[in-house]
Write a structure and sequence with these properties.
Layout (H helix, E strand, L loop, with lengths): L1 H10 L3 H4 L12 H13 L5 E4 L6 H12 L4 H4 E5 L6 H13 L8 E6 L6 H13 L4 E7 L7 H4 L3 E4 L5 H15 L2 E2 L1 H11 L3 H14 L2 E2 L1 H7 L5 H12 L3 H14 L4 H14 L5 H19 L4 H14 L2
Parallel strand pairs: 1-4, 1-5, 2-3, 3-4, 6-7
Helix pairs in contact: 3-4, 6-7, 9-11, 10-11, 10-12, 11-12, 13-14, 13-15, 13-17, 14-17, 15-16, 15-17, 16-17
C-alpha cells in the first residue's frame, strides 16, 4: 500500500521535478563540469563552490546530485538547501546557516550548505557569510548558486572554485525533450520541437514546463500549441511587423502589433525582446542598420522597464524604425 501511494505521488509531480537529474551522470550539456565534480566525489572532498549562469541550465540539479553522491546514506542530515531570495538579510546567515555549519556531520568529514539565488543576498549578509565560510571550513562546505556572479562580493568569489554554466544547446534540449515525450506517450512535430527550442532559449526548465502545458491541450504537440501556451509569437510574425515598419507602413505594422498584444497576450517587454532576437538574425539588414535598430530597442526597452506605457512605447519604437531606415 505504501509503495502504491508513493507511486501515485510521483505521478502527480510536475514534469520539471519528475525528470530532475538524480545523479551527476544524468545532467546534460556540461560534460567538463560534471567530470570535475565527479573527481570531488571520488576524492571524498569538496572545496567551496560557486555555480554561475542563466536560469534552467542545471546549477541546482548539479549541487543536489553532487551532495547525493557524496552522502548516499545520510543525505538529509548532511545537506541543507536554502534559497537566498526567501530571506535576503543578515539574520539568515547569523542563525540558520551558522547553526547548521557549527554542528558535526554524520558519517562524513563535512556537511554541505547549498545557498541558491545567492546573488539576492544583501551586501551585509554576504559579508557575514564570508566570515562564516572561514570559521567553519573544517566542518562545512558551501555551494553557492547565482545567475549573476558580479553580484557576489570578491571575498566570497575568491573562497570558491567557480563553475560557469552556459545555456544548453539545441541538441541537448532536443535529446531531453524526446526522452520525456517517449516516457509520457506524447508526440511532437518537428516544427513543434523547433518552436520549443526557440522559446526556451537554452533554458531546459522552461522547455519542460512549456511541453507539459502544451501536452495538456493535445497529446500531439504542434508548433501552434507551443507558441500558444508560451505566449510567444512565431518568429515570422515578428519579422513581418519589423519589415512593415522599416518599409514605412506604420499602420500595417501597428495591426501586427495588436495581434501580438491581444491575441497572443504578450507583454511589452517580451515583444521588445523578440524584436531584438529577430533583428539580429535578419539577413536582409546590414550591420549599420542593425546597429541603429538595436540602439532604438535599448532606449525603448529602458522606458518600458521604467514604467512607461507598453503599447505607446512599442508603437513609438515602430515609428522610430521608419525614421531610421
Amino acid at each position: 500500500m505504501h509503495k502504491k501511494e508513493f507511486a501515485e505521488q510521483e505521478e502527480v509531480l510536475p514534469w520539471v521535478e519528475k525528470y530532475r537529474p538524480k545523479s551527476l551522470s544524468e545532467i546534460i550539456g556540461h560534460e567538463e563540469i560534471i567530470k570535475r565534480l565527479k573527481s570531488y566525489v571520488d576524492n571524498k572532498n569538496v572545496p567551496n563552490l560557486l555555480f554561475t549562469g542563466p536560469a534552467g541550465v542545471g546549477k541546482t540539479s548539479a549541487a543536489v546530485a553532487l551532495a547525493r553522491e557524496l552522502f548516499p546514506k545520510n543525505f538529509n542530515l548532511n545537506f541543507i538547501e536554502l534559497n537566498a531570495s526567501d530571506d535576503r538579510g543578515i539574520d539568515v546567515v547569523r542563525n540558520t546557516i551558522k547553526d547548521f555549519a557549527r554542528t558535526l556531520s554524520f558519517d562524513s568529514a563535512f556537511k554541505i550548505i547549498f545557498l541558491d539565488e545567492s546573488d539576492a543576498l544583501t551586501n551585509d549578509a554576504q559579508q557575514a557569510l564570508r566570515r562564516t565560510m572561514e570559521r567553519y571550513t573544517k566542518t562545512c562546505r558551501f555551494i553557492l548558486s547565482a545567475n549573476y556572479s558580479s553580484r557576489i562580493i570578491e571575498p566570497i568569489q575568491s573562497r570558491c572554485v567557480v563553475f560557469r554554466f552556459k545555456p544548453l544547446s539545441a541538441r541537448d534540449i532536443e535529446k531531453k525533450i524526446k526522452e520525456i515525450c517517449k516516457e509520457e506517450n506524447v508526440s511532437i512535430t518537428e516544427s513543434g520541437l523547433e518552436a520549443l527550442i526557440y522559446v526556451s532559449e537554452g533554458d531546459l526548465r522552461k522547455a519542460i514546463n512549456v511541453l507539459q502545458a502544451a501536452s495538456s491541450i493535445d497529446k500531439h504537440v504542434s508548433e501552434k500549441n507551443i507558441f500558444s501556451v508560451s505566449s510567444r509569437a512565431k518568429p515570422e510574425e515578428v519579422r513581418q511587423m519589423i519589415n512593415l515598419a522599416i518599409e514605412g507602413k506604420f499602420l500595417d505594422s501597428r495591426d501586427k502589433l495588436n495581434i501580438l498584444l491581444y491575441e497572443y497576450g504578450m507583454s511589452g517587454e517580451d515583444i521588445v525582446l523578440q524584436i531584438y532576437r529577430e533583428i539580429l538574425s535578419m539577413k536582409e539588414l546590414d550591420d549599420k542598420q542593425k546597429i541603429k535598430l538595436i540602439e532604438l530597442i535599448a532606449e525603448y526597452s529602458f522606458r518600458i522597464a521604467e514604467g512607461a506605457n507598453e503599447r505607446i512605447q512599442i508603437e513609438a519604437l515602430l515609428a522610430a524604425m521608419i525614421n531610421n531606415k
